[in-house]
Design goal:
- The chain is 38% helix and 19% strand.
- It is of the alpha+beta class.
- The strands form 2 sheets. Strands 1, 2, 3, 7, 8, 9, 10 and 11 form an 8-stranded antiparallel sheet that branches. It has a 3-stranded antiparallel sheet with strand order 4-6-5.
- Helix 2 (56-65) runs parallel beside helix 6 (137-150), helix 3 (72-78) packs across helix 9 (215-225) and helix 7 crosses helix 8.
- Residues 328-335 have low confidence and may be disordered.
Length: 335
């Protein structure tokens, strides 16, 4: 997005240590009602951003449209930025084996597991950076599976002009209600596509409210039923989906997070400085403001615990990241 849109982003959160505001986070936020109308807008939510891994549910849908046979936990892994726990890696291997593919065909950037415990165990076992361990390996396994099903070349699946990536762009534009505005390379090597924060919220709404029996609904249902596969132990999106029945949620690099409910209400956040700690706090504040934590069956305490906002001093909580009341930015909403 433009530097101006980021530099002009409103204040979303304070970092408070023992009563002292130590730092602040600016960002963009959008909340949509069940009819797709904006109920809260902070900043220029129509400027293109890079949602990064928050787009994985759309990429997973494109894989289904290409003919990939993905269901259940495997489909959830296609949407995941997984922590690299044993169950995640076993699932990715099984996805590949089911399509008669090998781990050596993964072309995502080699890395250590994303989760701290998984990373420490991996290194202690004497293993280096590998594509399997990298948090996007589920997405790449799904892309390879889709190419195998469609008869497309598996060696070039990451390239922008590849039939699969063309289908990903078409699928994203369909869900977001707007064309892809930017194309660059993601950290994992796949294309990183730019849409607006408004488009990201619409994408999540389209998936979360999809009619049962459709491919869109299959993606959302897989995320709901297998939240551990989408993130991992102690991950914000995993714990939020467990605490709020029907919610789908996904984070992305550089301070992006989005979520939606089956009735079509949707929320998306982009933190200007890229710090993820303010993203979850801002999302939770929007959910609370919209009354989501008061819905039947919602574990409000677990939802609040999911967003770990404590600031530590000598290992003990001495403050927290606090959302700022940004209701004053709700005027002048645009469709």
């Amino acid at each position: 997005m433009s530097a101006t849109a980021l530099s002009d982003a409103p204040l979303l959160a304070h970092v408070v240590r023992s009563g002292v505001v130590e730092s602040v986070h600016h960002g963009l936020l959008i909340a949509l009602d069940a009819d797709g109308a904006a109920t809260r807008q902070c900043g220029d939510v129509h400027a293109p951003i890079l949602p990064r891994s928050a787009l994985k549910p759309a990429q997973a849908l494109a894989c289904l449209r290409a003919g990939a046979d993905l269901t259940g936990e495997h489909l959830a892994l296609a949407c995941a930025s997984h922590s690299g726990e044993d169950t995640h890696l076993a699932g990715v291997r099984a996805m590949l084996e089911q399509a008669d593919l090998g781990v050596d065909q993964l072309d995502n950037t080699p890395d250590y597991p994303l989760g701290e415990q998984a990373r420490l165990a991996w290194i202690a076992a004497g293993r280096g950076k590998e594509s399997l361990a990298q948090n996007c390996s589920g997405k790449h396994a799904a892309m390879l599976t889709a190419c195998r099903a469609a008869g497309w070349d598996t060696a070039t699946y990451r390239e922008v002009g590849h039939p699969l990536q063309v289908l990903v762009e078409e699928t994203l534009a369909d869900l977001a209600g707007e064309p892809v505005a930017r194309r660059t390379v993601d950290g994992c090597g796949a294309p990183a596509l730019g849409i607006s924060l408004m488009g990201l919220a619409r994408m999540f709404a389209a998936l979360a409210s999809a009619r049962s029996g459709t491919r869109r609904a299959a993606v959302a249902d897989a995320m709901r039923r297998h939240p551990q596969a989408v993130g991992g132990t102690g991950r914000v999106v995993t714990d939020l989906m467990r605490a709020i029945p029907g919610l789908i949620a996904k984070d992305g690099a550089e301070g992006v997070i989005a979520a939606a409910l089956p009735d079509g209400r949707a929320f998306a956040v982009k933190i200007a400085d890229g710090n993820a700690r303010a993203a979850g706090v801002s999302l939770l504040a929007a959910l609370e403001s919209d009354g989501v934590l008061e819905l039947p069956g919602v574990d409000a305490s677990a939802a609040r615990t999911a967003v770990r906002s404590e600031i530590l001093g000598h290992g003990r909580p001495v403050g927290q990241v606090r959302a700022v009341d940004n209701s004053t930015y709700g005027s002048g909403l645009r469709e």
